[in-house]
Amino acid sequence: MAGTVGGILVGILLALVLGAIYSYLDLYNTISIYLTLLATMGAGAGLGLGVGKFLHWAKVRNVAVLYGVGAICALVLLIWSWEVWIYAFLHQAKLQVSMGDLLGSPRFLWRVIGAINEKGAWSIGGHVGDKGTPVSGVALWAVWIGEAAMLVGVPLAVIKWAAMPAPFCETCQKWCEKRALAKLNAGDGGAFRREMENKQFGAIAKAGPAAGSAMRFWDIYLEGCAGCDSTQTFSMDEVTLTLDKKGNLQRKTKKVIRRLNLSPEETVAVATQVAGLSNPEGKAGGDSEQSRTMSDNKAAE
Length: 301
Ligand SMILES: [Zn+2]
Prior knowledge:
Blueprint: H1 2-28, H2 33-57, H3 63-92, H4 99-104, H5 106-119, H6 137-163, E1 168-169, E2 174-175, E3 177-185, H7 189-197, H8 202-207, E4 216-224, E5 232-243, E6 249-262, H9 264-278, H10 288-300
Bound molecules: zinc ion.
Zinc ion binds next to loops.
């Protein structure tokens, strides 16, 4: 509960700061519409990441709460950026209106917005309409709706990613860690996923280890608790490496298996399979303690 309240407070504070910066940038930037677009995304992403990181630190892991806090903060960002923008816009036009007038009366704010919409606030030189003609009416409403969608949508799109980068161990009350297992030959990802979901872990040996030079492979890893065996999950990403025109290596990752829950026994079975990859003749299926140690060493490399 304290984490949730803290998240809302931190988020509102962040929204006030980001909203103010964003509004002034929006108003005074007449150079590039792309800069405005970037600022809109930046304000939204900054808010989502900031609140998300705080909620992660506060160990808030209820997804509904995450989105609830995110929505409240995003609405504050949206409304506040309007307040600041209108305030700055009127002052630029030498109209003396206090922030109190705008904050105190939503109806007054709404009328000002309507009046600005009728006249048009700015022009998109040469892009839309005649050069220098202010964008107004329906076109301006459309831009504003798009802007609002971004200011609210972007924080919500990134908050879970920032707050829950890994599963949470309820036993130890801490976030889980990622442990690399192996790189496998890429084959039929759908079939591999079905086999793993049915706990047919022999699929790992069947795929076999990928060659060091492979440009397409399966990256398998565990995300689990470092402190106990009660929370372990298995994931597989299909990785494709390509060389771009400049000769730089580009890495494309497709998540095929996403956090498949494993019991302690299943975790050992997976680790045994992975150990068998580097030692195909001998110990696979043998001493599980040794297999785990081997997979731990592999992860530490
Ligand atoms: Zn634990």
